Amino acid sequence: MLEICGPYRINGTVEVPGDKSISHRSIILSSLTKENVIIDNFLFSEDCKNTLEILKKIGVKYSTSKDCVMIEGCGISNFVEPDDILYAGNSGTSIRLLSGLLCGCNFMSILSGDKSINNRPMDRIINPLTEMGAKIYGRLNNKKAPLVIFGGSMLKGIKHEINVASAQVKSCLAIAALFAEGSTEIIQPAVSRDHTERMLEYFGADIQYDGKYTKIIPGKNLKGKDIFVPGDFSSAAFFIIAALILEKSKVLIKNVGINPTRSYLLNVLKEMGANIEIKNERIKSNEIIADIEASSSMLKAVSVNEEVIPNIIDEIPILSVAAAFAEGLTKIRGAKELRLKESDRIKSISTEFKKAGIKVDEYPDGLEIHGSRHREINSSSLKSYGDHRIAMSLVVLALKGKAEVKISSTKCINTSFPGFEDKIFNMISN
Ligand code: S3P
Predict the structure, then answer these.
(1) Are the C-beta atoms of 292 and 278 separated by less than 8 Å?
(2) Which atom of ligand 1 is nearest to the CA of 169?
(3) Consecutive 10-residue runs of the chain (430 residues): their mean pLDDT?
(4) Residue 259: CB within 6 Å of ligand 1?
(5) From ligand 1's centre to the CA of 168, what distance in Å?
(6) DSSP states of 127-176 as a string?
(7) Residues designated catalytic
(8) Ligand 1 atom index nearest CA of 340
(9) Domain segments of the chain: what residues?
(10) DSSP string over 94-108
(11) For residues 279 and 266, what is the distance between their CA atoms, to the nearest angstrom?
């Protein structure tokens, strides 16, 4: 339980932990190579530790030191049958990407997760993997985890149009495609994050990608190379928005990944009138990195276009906090995927914001938030629903208020950002 009574200001320089999506991919894809790959700035969060543990159970050897992991790549055909179920915890990226890998292996495996994971949709991977020739089954008529995979069938490349823009589905199929006969083409309705494509390209895979289109031609051995994982843009977003909404505030967040398929929030915030500067832009391990400076701003409301929702999907809870303190009505629609995340984020935001005294209209596909720069927050007891991004967004919300706000179940923050509370509390002052 956290108890916060603002208003605070926030100042200083900070580094956020490594990117969650890239950390998962770094260990999964390195294990498919035959090299020892050193991954620097790896995110040791609950989610990524679950992926590491699963890889260990299928025979991948690794060692860790401080912020690094060294994966001893075993090559595409040397994984071994696990002697237990594989537990993905709260992590959609673990269960979906590893399903793609396990369908290409020559053994049986069972993947399960926590209550949230076992209620999230898995038919979106089961159906196309089945079309590739995999034998993968799930609970509730092949819709939910636990998943059972009977490996050993030869996969064949497919041309697949995904009906939802999901990097997890795309990456699952891209990984399965590496084991298949013939090439796989994936077409999405909107552009989703392209970390898998960038890392496969970095490892020398035969891959073509452009916006909504990805093609993988199997057969070329992946060549492992050391990876630097940039700071997680989604984690940086909590500091950016804290600086924007709090008075007399300025933060510099160093070494953040600003891959354009991930960082569209910067464009949205600029449209809202945010003072943000991008500095020291550079490329490392085929990803774009920069330092981001943000300072107190007079924000105004914004309407977000459906096409860019996948590029801000994880930042919508914290964007909603910015919207609460931006003058006017902010419209976030076309975002029904938010209901299928670690919690039903549309409901979580709308319910908790209302308790704090913020007027929100809830729609099946999004939210409209009535913002005001002079808004007062009610003294309230708020819940995270076990969802890390809801918990951290509520912390930032509470920093702005003049009333005492209690936030329960904040342990889930470890899912993506161990040490968040210490970092942010060290930078604030009254
Ligand atoms: C992720 C993709 C997104 C995102 C999730 C991480 C990834 O999910 O919300 O936090 O690592 O590929 P979807 O691809 O299901 O939209």
Answers:
(1) yes
(2) 14
(3) 96 98 98 98 97 98 96 97 98 98 98 97 98 98 98 96 97 98 98 98 98 97 97 98 98 98 98 98 98 98 96 98 98 98 98 98 98 94 97 98 96 97 98
(4) no
(5) 5
(6) HHHHHTT--EEEHHHHTEEEEEEE--SPPB--EEE-SS--HHHHHHHHHH
(7) 314
(8) 15
(9) 2-17+230-429, 20-228
(10) HHHHHHHHHHTSSSE
(11) 13
- Top CATH class of 20-228 equals alpha beta
H-helix or E-strand spanning residue 234: helix 233-245
C-beta 91 within 6 A of ligand 1: no
State how far the Cα of 392 lies from the Cα of 410, in Å rounded to an integer: 8
Burial of 65 from C-beta contacts in 10 A (0-12 / 13-18 / 19+)? exposed
Pocket test for ligand 1, best of 27, 168, 336, 387 (most atoms within 8 A of CB): 168
How far away, in angstroms, is 96 Cα from ligand 1 center? 10
Contact by Cβ (8 Å): 382, 406 = yes
The CATH class given to the 2-17+230-429 domain equals: alpha beta
Q: Mapping DSSP to helix (H, G, I), strand (E, B) and coil, where does residue 329 land?
A: strand
Which token pair is 278? 């991008």
Q: Is there an atom of ligand 1 within 6 Å of 21 CB?
A: yes
Give residues with Cβ within 8 angstroms of 11, minimum separation 6.
Answer: 248, 249, 250, 251, 427, 429
- How many angstroms is it from 167 CA to the middle of ligand 1? 6
> 167: Cβ below 6 Å to ligand 1?
yes
CA of 430 to the centre of ligand 1 (A): 36
Give the sheet arrangement for strand 405-408, strand by strand: 2-4, 405-408, 380-383
For ligand 1, is residue 22 a contact (CB within 6 Å)?
A: no
